[in-house]
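Problem: given the chain below (137 residues), write out its structure.
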Amino acid sequence: MLRRVARAAELVSLAAVLHACDETAAAIAGFDVTGSWAYQGTSPQFSLRGTIDFVQTGAVVAVTGTTYENADDRELVGQATLDGRRLEIELVPANGDDDYRANVTFSFSEDGESFDVAFADTNFDEGEMGSYRGSRR
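Solution.
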């Protein structure tokens, strides 16, 4: 648990440092996705649901944690640069395990209140854009 908290704190700290180095990134980002978001799959094939937490500093977005309401999966974290309304990010287990990663693309709505997801992971799971949807809590 302490390792997970330390990893999340590292990601948030790194985001703060990057912001201090490049304040123009905020203008490029256009909106802030910081907060807790509810997500769920859009079909029986994609049935996970839970929350994902984002912290945005400038154009840098950190996923500081995920939860699952209907599974016992590991919490995931990651960090990437927001490109307009699109975030392409690699998520890995917060506990430091190196046996899993997911390449996830978030496409945020114009008002910044919802997103659609496409993903592929090391378990050979793959979903097209819209396989998961989320909304700001």
